[in-house]
Amino acid sequence: MDIRKSLLLAAATLGAPVWAQTCQPSATTPYLNINGTTSWAVKASASLNAGSRVVLGPQPVSGSWSWSGCGASGTSREQTLKLTASCTATATYTNSCGAKTTQSYNFTVWPAMASNAGKFIMVDQFGYLPNSRKVAVLRFPKVGYDSNQSYWPQQLQVVNAATSAVVYTAWPQDWNGLQTDASSGDQVWHFDFSSITTPGTYEIVDSTNNQRSARFEIGDNIYRNVLIQAVRMFFYQRAGQTKSANNAGAGWADAASHLKAGQDTQARRFLDPNNANTARDLRGGWYDAGDLNKYTSWAAAYAQDLVEAYVQNPTVFTDDFNIPESWNGIPDILDEAKWGLDWLVRMQNSDGSVLSIVGLAGASPPSAATAPSYYGDASTSATLASAAAYAEGAKVFASLNNTAMNTYAADLKTRAQRAWTWALANPNVVFRNNDAANGTSGLGAGQQETDDAGRAELRLIAAIKLFAATGDTSYRNYVDAHYTEAPMFASYYLSAFNAGNARNLLYYAALPGATSSIATAIRTRYLDLWGRSDYGGWGAIDAKKDPYRAYIDSYTWGSNAVKANAGTLFTEEGYYGISRHTADDVSNAALDYLHYLHGVNPLGKAYLTNMVSFGAENSVNQIFHTWFADGSAQWDSAATSTYGPAPGYLVGGPNYGQWDWDSRCPGISAACGSTRPTPPYGQPPQKSYLDFNDGWPLQSWPISEPSNGYQTNYIRLLARFVK
Questions:
Q1: 139, 638, 658, 708: least CB-packed within 10 angstroms?
Q2: Where does the Cellulase Ig-like domain lie (predicted)?
């Protein structure tokens, strides 16, 4: 039989013409990636805020593509779109034999936030879990920059944003007899819509006054993408890491920083800068905050917090956060913690001591920095903090059933023990950076050194972590002999301002082998203090002290981190199963602190950067950060620059009484302006915030600077409510 006849018979058998058997269209798979920063999802549709960015990357990779719609064009397989209205993007794929396949992406784009939205009706802009308590806060500003505005709420409606259907109607309830709250300067009402549990996108509407809230979702995993961005903040903070467009998103791609001659791989001792024999390979680690320096004690705390977030929520932290180590079989949050631990390993001396700091040059982007890197000498505080981090890393990495990580964990355990031994033998070795009296001016920015009480706390934490990692009773004996020196016992002090100390004591109390009577004493003291009527825990909730439902004692530098810490003090009760309250009470108490950070505050501000694409219509536009600097055409502001700062950074937040312009203003510089900006100046505590990133002389850093420490506190709280 000739070939032509064979083809005809085959075609007849299959019921298709010959040409169809020889050149058929190929199947395509639609992938999209929000903002180029999340992991790729097999999706052909999404609902997004106006101004959101989305990256389209259909497969297969081979063959050719052409595009139309939503601003897509040309032949590049990957398309990055900034969406302003609902639209359909259409991709046409042509395979190697010329057959074509059409793939459509359909986008519902919510309109830009209306001018009357979110001024007086405050909600969590990311949303609410279906079965959680849901309370919008309504405000009449009486004191502060906005006291010339007024709002008296009428009956309110919950409206489905997609269908305009009214799903609930009720009157709000006033807070505290409509007294003006001193912390916010507002009169307040609460609108409870907890009965709405159906997933969807909603708004709170006061049709009488033509006022509405920002949009929000109700859903069972609405915070997952928020958590991914919050964890990815550490990836952007990595020193010496290539940030490819595939991992960082095109807007924040950058070459590895601080790897030039004389920088991190050849860092020299600050106090002996001309001696080449002092050069050390100290690459890696994280930029600490808005400055690009690396501080040992603080980095050790960050690594521990990341590990503990995983330990408390192991199923939440998957291996697909789109960092370079993703899909390696290890949860990405542990990969991130390991990045920090690897740097701490390089910082350790052969005698067990650990160097205190590496000072890095600043530049925007960081890869443009050219000046040398210098390190500070070893100190007791840096060594104790590192001992705790090594020990915690050893325990958790050994639990992964991974041969390579077992070896790594064993090395960390040995390092922890050596650090402990050195620190006990050298209890008061101090190194003060950026201190003229010690000849260290210019090394770093913040002061990493602590005092005697701080070193005592670090010894206690290190002993707890070493006991957990080794089971050696000598460490337990140290804890048992010194736990009453902690503030909970020594001064009856438990607050969101010392949450870390309290959390570590609870951790010890839950360890197998912990002394039973001491474990009981710790749990009892914790519950007694956090439950006191005159403290900032359950007593503040019972007394309804804060109209925005997230009480802290004061609004100082880093108040947003304090808010997150307060929330975790409730979640710790739930995690360890020791609370005197119901599980729902614990969850709702902690969630109110999360809602505050997501927009339930007097400014209606979601205190994370550049989160419009992830659901927050009024997120932070500017932060004080060397990379995302004031005036940068690319990164200055999410509202006006090409890209704005990378997503997911938590800013310091309202700062009452600790911010001011340079004392020589206004005469020292035209940049002062004629008067201090208000806000943040002269406002009630909760309004002492401004979305700005000016350096000298307006010095925004006490308000708008991020910190890795703020970030870990937030991650620990947020992770409790993610699946």
A1: 658
A2: 119-205
Q: Quick one: which of 240, 326, 342, 234 has its CA closest to 289?
A: 234
Phi-psi region of 594 (alpha: psi -120 to 50; beta: other; left: phi over 0): alpha
Show the tokens assigned to 140. Answer: 């009449």
Count other Cβ atoms within 10 Å, centred on residue 686.
27
- The partner residues of 217 in beta bridges, in order of sequence, read 127, 201
Q: How confident is the model over 465-516, as pLDDT tens digits?
A: 999 999 999 999 999 999 999 999 999 999 999 999 999 999 999 999 999 9
Dihedral sign from CA coordinates of 521, 522, 528, 532:
positive
Residue 295: name the closest of 396, 431, 460 by CA. Answer: 431
Parallel/antiparallel/unpaired status of strands 294-295 and 268-269: unpaired
Q: How far is 394 from 28, CA to CA, in rounded Å?
A: 44
pLDDT tens readout for residues 363-372:
999 999 999 9
Q: Of how many residues is the chain composed?
A: 723
Spatial separation of the C-alpha atoms in residues 156 and 119, rounded to whole Å: 15
Cα–chain-centroid distance for residue 90? 35
Tokens (6 digits) for 452: 């005697």
Question: DSSP string spanning 247-310?
Answer: HH-GGG-BPPPS-STTSGGGBEETTSTT-GGG-B-----B--BSS--EEHHHHHHHHHHHHHHH
* First-residue to last-residue Cα distance in the chain: 62
- The secondary element (H helix, E strand) that includes residue 189 is strand 186-192
Q: What is the DSSP string of 17-74?
A: -HHHHHS-PPP-B-EEEETTTS--EE-SEEEEETT-EEEE--B-SSSEEEEESTT--S
438 burial level (CB within 10 Å; 0-12, 13-18, 19+): middle
In whole angstroms, give the CA distance from residue 256 to residue 325. Answer: 16
Beta-strand pair 41-42/100-110: unpaired
Strand ordering across the sheet containing 79-82: 41-42, 31-34, 53-56, 79-82
Q: What is the dihedral of CA 650, 502, 455, 420, to 10 degrees?
A: -100
User: Pick from 569, 617, 552, 600: which is nearest to 717 by CA?
Assistant: 569
CA distances, 131 to each of 36, 273, 588, 619 (Å): 32, 60, 10, 25
CB 568 within 8 Å of CB 590? yes
Task: Please name the residue that has the structure tokens 């389209």.
Answer: 56
Strand partners of residue 104: 90
CB 136 within 8 A of CB 191: yes
Share of the chain above pLDDT 90, in %: 95
State the DSSP string of 131-175. Answer: TS--EEEEEEE-SSTTTT-------EEEEETTT--EEEEE--EES
Strand order in the sheet with 173-174: 121-122, 135-141, 186-192, 173-174
- Which residues share a beta bridge with 66? 92
H or E segment and range at residue 416: helix 403-425
The torsion angle over the Cα atoms of residues 236, 242, 248 and 254, rounded to 10 degrees, is 90
Whether residue 267 contacts residue 685, with contact meaning beta carbons closer than 8 Å, is answered with no
Give residue 39's pLDDT band: very low, low, confident or very high (50, 70, 90).
confident
